[in-house]
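name: query_chain
kind: protein
chains: 1
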Amino acid sequence: MPNGGHAPPFGAWERMLAGRYLRAKRSQGGVALISLISFIGIMLAVAVLIIVMSVMNGFREELLGRILGFQGHVFVAGPVVDGPALGPTVKRILKVPGVVQAVPVVQGQVLAMGPDQITGAIVRGVSASDVAATKIIASNITHGSLKNYGKGDYGGDDILVGDRLAEQLGVKAGDTLTLVSPAGGATAFGTAPVQKAFTIGGTFTVGMSQYDQAYIYMPLQQAQLFFGREGSVDEIEIKLTNPDDAPRIKPAIARAAGPMALVTDWTQRDTSFWGALKVERNVMGLILSLLVVIAAMNIISGLIMLVKNKGRDIAILRTMGAGQGSILRIFFMAGATIGALGTLAGVLAGVLFSVYIDEIQSVVEWVTGQTVFSSDVYFLSRLPARVDWREVAAIVVFSLLMSCVWTLPPAWRASRLDPVEALRYE
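structure:
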């Protein structure tokens, strides 16, 4: 019971009254149904925000991991990768701190002729040692092996084919695949196409359809011969300990490669793609944050009705010595409690959904009989999700802040209620 308005702020009696008002039935002037709706709204808004941001985090991480695992982080081209300059350039680059791999690459387009179909493909000429060191390839050989890759004259005739490409062409490990290069050796009549049959030593899967359906790995020397680039490569792909350090390490790599080198990093390639992904993530976060704001606004309607129904109680409390601050805190706690409980439930639901998203996807696909996440459309074979706890903390703070902000107007109105006016018609 208040004592002359000197009870401690947020004391036991204030908390007791706030809880009683929240639990009051409609017949007692309570607004339990509206409070429940506000609770559910905040819970769903917070959960959806966490789930969507986690999926977008996972999507970016998966894309980044697979793209940068398949390709390099920094790229060196120019005269320093031609002829005798190639070997010394690679050795100097490998001495740069943070560099873990420097891979000379020859890349060209070919026509792949299988028994079922003829289609275009991209050949990457990479040495056997570099393929073995590329974990995303060496660890994901689905059929066959790397046993004969790079063995034989000019690297041999064994190649690696993406599993989706092999399926499309109707070939498998051990079969023969004919490749046609439009840019072959030079003749008296100009550049002549080169056609050659290769043995499929194995098939690989990166987990991204754009790679599994388009790429073929060929020994470096064989690719140089096949594309008419003996003694030279297209570029050196460099992999770093941390891909995010590429812009910082790039100047050191440029110095090591030499003044004639053309050096770029992965942030400069496909700039529009990565930029669009970042903008999409930020805009989606902003839009879904508005859902939290709208859900929290429901607290206002519930508290306004609660204040109206409890006008007599407020007047009695004021006449018994409760100050305006006590009344404000009572209704503030009532509204903030709805927001806090809704936020807590939303965090729990959102995190659990994100953690078990693979199982949920499997259940939905089993029930509906439809593929929820088609790899042909989204590049990845599964729906990824990664919970960023710093992001979750920011969402929690934002939701609690919005709940408190929208609680203040009706709580302030309750604190300014005139006891005489409230009791005049009682």
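note: Residues 32-70 form the longest helix (39 residues).
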